[in-house]
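A quick aside before the break. I want you to see a complete sequence-to-structure record at least once, exactly as it would be stored in a machine-readable document. Don't worry about memorizing anything.
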Amino acid sequence: MRQAPANVIDVVRPVVESLGYELVGVEYLTQGRDGLLRVYIDHEDGIGVEDCKRVSHQLSGVLDVEDPIRGHYTLEVSSPGLDRPLFTAEHFQQFAGQEARLKLATPVLGRRKLTGRIVGVHDDEVEILVDGESYMVPLDTIERANLVAEI
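That is the input. The structure line, written in tokens, reads:
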């Protein structure tokens, strides 16, 4: 999955958690010479603009001091939203029974995109039920995963 390097997550996690939020995940995307550091946060009462602003302000200072990313990048703090991204095996287990959309780095049985119900996680593989057929997808082949919003 497209997570930021561990050294970046190690800087971000304590800041987010010390402010009383859950760190859902951290993505680092390169865009030409610049980058985008996207931090997803959550809270049992939900996330609003003020929450994102608060975390962004604290995180900016710490990232400037710790400097875990070389070069210029933009910091974006966001709620996970209805199409919540899934980053870890624990996320897939937590949302078992819900529908998810997976984009794979390498095909599984000839498919790079799968949308179906998460069954669970077994030995570093996500089991997903797509059109009545069960697929076992290695976690390290998942490029991106999001819940499908059920409205």
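Two observations worth writing down. The chain has a mean pLDDT of 94. The domain at 6-78 is CATH 3.30.300.70 (GMP Synthetase; Chain A, domain 3). We'll return to this after the break.
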